[in-house]
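Residues pack. Consider this:
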Amino acid sequence: MHPTVIITGANGFVGAFLVDYFTQKQWKVKAFARNPIKSTSPLVAYHAFEMPDNIDESAFTGVDYLIHCAVAKHAIDLPNSDEINIEGTNKLLELSRKHKLKKFVFFSTMSAHDQAKSHYGKHKLLLESTFDLTQDVVLKPGLIMGQSGGLFSNIKETIQKSKFVPMIDGGKQPIQTIHVLQLAEVIHTIFEKSLSGCFYLGETTPITMKAFYRGIAQALNQKRTFVPLPSFLVGIGLRMAELFKIKLAVGTENLQGLKALREFDTQPTSEALGIKFKSFDDNIRLIMD
């Protein structure tokens, strides 16, 4: 018999991909989503889910694993997002312990570190302390790339639409990417090997943000002019846009995260999993081919 997995945030970019991935592996999936849909697969059952109170305990019966992708994003119209994430994550973990799930996987980020500047990075780092790394799993991926959704798609859309693309602080920041398919394969491997701990996920040798942007433009066959701008000037523009509720591909949170980007050693994860992380060039070819 194949295992059963709960995936929270099942309608999001990563969550939806994981639902499809594990379904293709013939796993049973209990998809937790704020706006549940009716699946065409008999292996997938959607459950209404909203942290911290709308969590269906009955759905935990017979479950082997839980992947926690859902997050309440920090925003002006959601001032209590931190409390929602903390209470919701604690409740999910409590139910996982109660129903003796084999593994709880929490999605964090490389942006979560002791010098983080973004609210998102600082909060994810705080949430990481919730887990027991002798039995739980904390994933810290770099920038996740895929066909649609996520920050990568926003950046790609910006490059497609604009002949002049801002390059914050000259684009010297290091970036490590991972394709969403390899991310799913990592989780599958962790389950198969019954691993626990904190795993940094992304190419072993980082590229610069400038090389990342240029690589996307080249893959799109678009000639673009990249304009270096100081981060403080970009910050003023983003804050003005948010003040007047002008929707942009990136916001001040993205800027703060960008300013604090740093390189992480992913080789120990690569060795533990027996997986070689694909390079940015490999990842962009997977998406554009």
Observations:
- DSSP finds ten helices and 13 strands in the chain.
- The first strand starts at residue 4 and ends at 8.
- The longest helix spans residues 81-98.
- Residues 37 and 46 are 6 Å apart (CA to CA).
